[in-house]
Design brief:
Strand 1 and strand 2 form a beta hairpin. The chain is α+β, with helices and mostly antiparallel strands.
Length: about 130
């Protein structure tokens, strides 16, 4: 199984930090490996403490299902095929801000989760981090 390296995790964090600064927001940023284990984490100065757990859970959720957390959210609405999925796996986050990370061959090697602003900003920052690999 392909797995994210520490260097790649740092690249994703750095790109996410740069995007956070560009859009003037404070974020908690988590990167998990292919097994959904925490590989790297950063909490920007003055980022919300309550977003630490959310960022980690977004990264894990994106890796567990190999899709953006916002996409899972769309499927988990009442009447949807994944309704109530957020109660599985010890708690998932099913709103935007979690994005799988792929290597150059297109294999999923981990995921990034970001929390600390609007879900739109969270997704923008996560996508920037994932896109850096």
């Amino acid at each position: 199984m392909a797995d994210i390296t520490l260097e790649q995790a740092h690249m994703a964090i750095e790109a996410a930090l740069n995007k956070s600064k560009e859009i003037d927001t404070k974020m908690d940023i988590a990167v998990v490996d292919a097994g959904a284990n925490l590989k790297a984490f950063v909490r920007m100065d003055n980022a919300w403490i309550g977003s630490i757990d959310i960022a980690i859970k977004k990264a894990c959720t994106a890796r567990y299902f190999d899709m953006n957390t916002g996409d899972i959210g769309g499927l988990s609405q009442p009447g949807g095929p994944l309704y109530n999925i957020e109660h599985s796996n010890g708690g998932l986050i099913t709103f935007p801000g979690g994005v799988p990370i792929k290597n150059k061959a297109g294999e999923i090697i981990g995921a990034i989760g970001v929390s600390g602003s609007s879900v739109e900003n969270d997704h923008t920052v996560a996508a920037a981090g994932a896109g850096a690999i």
